Amino acid sequence: MDTLNQFKSFTSNLSQGDIMPALFMGHGSPMNGIEVNEFSTGWANMAKSIPQPAAVLVVSAHWFTRGTKITAMDFPPTIHDFGGFPQALFDVQYPAPGNPELAKETANLITTTPVELDHDWGLDHGAWTVIRHMYPNADIPVLQLSIDYTKGAQYHYDLAKEISALRKKGVLVLGSGNMVHNLRMLSWEMINGGGYDWANEANEKFKSAILNKDHQLLINFEKMGSDVRLSIPTPEHYLPLMYVLGLQGDKEEVLLFNDKAVGGSLTMTSVKVAA
Fold first, then answer.
1. What is 3-274's CATH number?
2. Span 246-262, pLDDT tens digits
3. Hey, CA dihedral for 111, 67, 228, 232, is it positive or negative?
């Protein structure tokens, strides 16, 4: 079955009112893509606990562009956008199909800004290192939506609402980043677990606001204190969270998982939004 017919077949069988969860994944080190550890196991278990999606739309911290783009090729390449890691990581290929028709449909849903159909990018490590543990057979179409680096958190939160209809068609929207992400202050002594006081304090603020559905506080993260500013020196790893929160319905709850700090200055905390 081709990917378009697979997509149509799945969505036509959805029960009235069914809606896919939305996920924010703390992706951490690219090595999580080939290691079986508590984080990759958490991703795999999450995939088993939710309906199988018709497609996955990833908003990755590692596709930061001027303007908004969406991958629209039949077979997006696996991008190894990192350096200094073992050859085994560079050898990984994740040959999931794309879905050009779904890319066009998604672009048409977004009316506040033009969306470019992209044929040059692919699946970066913010996408494939997570998804290969969730769907190891690589038989579910995967697309990526870029993050416009010229826009702030409110813009991305609002943009997410424009694609909310995809969840009713079986599309899993997955934001991939890290709430606390300051690589300049990474501690190798704490690489297997542990966070600096400021990282832990910032993460507790994030979790409290998420659980209390205080999205406006999270949108205005620059005003949350010095610990948060230290945790988000640049916004690319934080902004994917805005897409998941922007999709949260009034009656939907959140589940936190993989909630752990590593390397002193990273948190792997992940979020599930579901009815």
1. 3.40.830.10
2. 999 999 999 999 999 99
3. positive
